[in-house]
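Regression report. Comparing outputs from two consecutive submissions.

Submission 1:
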Amino acid sequence: MNNIFDELRSALYSIWQRRWTALAVAWGVALLGWMLVAMIPNSYESRARIYVQLDDMLAQQIGIGQGDRKQGVDRVRQTLTSAVNLEKVIRSTPIGADITTPKQMEMAVLGLAKQIKVESSEANLFIITASYANGSKSDAENAKVAQLIVQKMIDIFREENLSGNRGEMSTSLNFMDQQLAQRQKELATAEQKRMQFESQNPSLAGGAGAGLQKLEAARAELRGIDADLAAAQSALAAINGQMAGTPKTIAGMAGPVGGARGALNDAQGQLNALRARGLTENHPDVIAARNQVGALRSAAAAEGGGGAVGMPNPAYSSLESIRGERQANVQALGARRAAAQQEISTLTAQQFANPAAAAEYQQITRDYDVLKEQYDKLLQNREQLRIRGSIENEHTAVRFQVIDPPTSPRSPTSPNRPVLLFGVLLAGLGAGVAGAFAIGQLRSTFATTARLEKALGLPVLGAISQTVTDSARVLRKKRMKYFYAASSALFGLFVILLTIEFVQVGMVA
């Protein structure tokens, strides 16, 4: 511990002995550093906030959604710092006053691009920030230029969303009109070719596809007629069964009840009912009913005219009229079926009559349909684009509102000059101390007897203290006053520089 203390005391003594060297080095480093700090221009920053309104009901009705408008705003934000826009800013501000060559303009654009930031803090809020520093201009001028840069960026932001959209829309409409004119010519040529072919081949009018459609339609109609005919025939069979079970006459009231003729009528009705149910003649019930009818017929014949005189049955007459109607329906459906079969035969014959011409007509029709579909789609897109352009131009979907106008900077953002000045002062003092210590290490002197013993390896018997005369003592005090004055001057210069910095900043405010 004593060794460390001795070394520290020896180092301090060596530095103090060379205090004028340390002070000179400190002055030199401080002056040089302060000059460099003074050459750094103050950078002033201006910012503005813009609110972009994206909600619009009319725009949403035509398909301009919030996502589309936000995408357009993002595109403008990303391209806002392009070289073209930055050149506009430079030419419309004092930055471009001294620019005369393209090379100077290119360097100015590159430098300005690093000083401008466009950020989106929220969904609809944009912040534009610009900083400017030029050593040839005063602080007030630099602050004013920073504010002008932000204002010009706001103007470009608005211009790109308004006039830019109009220019893009006009270009798109012109392109769509050119495409429509070209498609219209091609469509007219294809239509004329198709009409000429149809006039030469009238049997193929409509094309092979149309013939197949007609054939399928005829077949479908024939299937429907067959179904209707089967239903009509079934209905006719049912009415015939009912008529078979219904007597034509009704026995008179005076006739004996339960005579052979009445029993015969009942048996005949039962037999007809069994047949109407679909039972065959070989069915046991049908055979039994038929035998009973035969036996009762013999009994009714033997009974002769003893029975009562019958009268016409109204139910039977009504069934006869219904049967006539259904027979007519069956005949009409049969005629329709024959006509449908004839039409199918004719269409089938036309399909295979001239296959080469049918294939050619099919190709012509296909080309025409493709061109017609493209033309209709282009026409629809052109109309949608025209309406959308009208909405965007006359009823702006994107609206701007400047929340915070460009600020007028009152103090520089960089550099932090007071901190730099103090840092230079500390660096100067450190350099002076380091220089004095380094010189002391280079010279072969010994501040203590312990260091001398260590260096020589021999015992030191004693040391003689320094003897100072009165005149030397007076001279030493005088030199100390000079040293303190020079040191105070260094700190005083630091205070003066700080005062000047605060005064200059206050003048800008």
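Submission 2:
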Amino acid sequence: MPEYCTCGAQLVENARFCHRCGRPTFEAPPEKPTPVISLPVQPTLHEKIAQLPVSFRNPIALRIAFLMSLGITLVQMVPFLGLLCFVWWTAAGWCAVLLYRRMTGLSLSVPAGARLGSITGVLAFVSMAAMIALRMFFEGKELVAQMVKQDPRISEVVNDPQMFAMAMLMLLGICFALVVGFCATGGALGARRLSRKTG
């Protein structure tokens, strides 16, 4: 460090500036830029839920499956439309995948679409079973009488509790397999079709 400034003034020891003219006595080393620490962007709750795998634990998938199963139930209450139940079950799986993509912005794989369709099918089967149980509770005797008129052998099944229980379990099992199977097929087809459109 020089003892005198260029203006002729004697400098004080360790002075950074001249007390007369204000000129710096030495060049300061360049300051190191402070590193900017960028924090990772936290995903929102909706994005976290949307990234969950498609299952009964995914609230978005469950809500969509419930809406689709409710739609199936309402359509099947219409007498003539109820005859096309296989079409509605497949369409419900397809529409569930489409609605999931609209709500989350994510495309589902074919297995995930099938899982969403099967969840829709399970909920649709539960609502159908509840409707059948209510109808049997209120109109059971009349329905059984009509069935016996059509086929007298049905009275043997109805009068034997064990045979009746086995027949009901078999009927429910077949119905469950059909509903879940068609809905899962619709979900898989919908996921495949939508992935082709984006690809």
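Expected: both submissions complete independently.
Actual: both completed, but the second showed a warning that disappeared on reload.
Relevant detail on submission 2: The mean pLDDT is 82.
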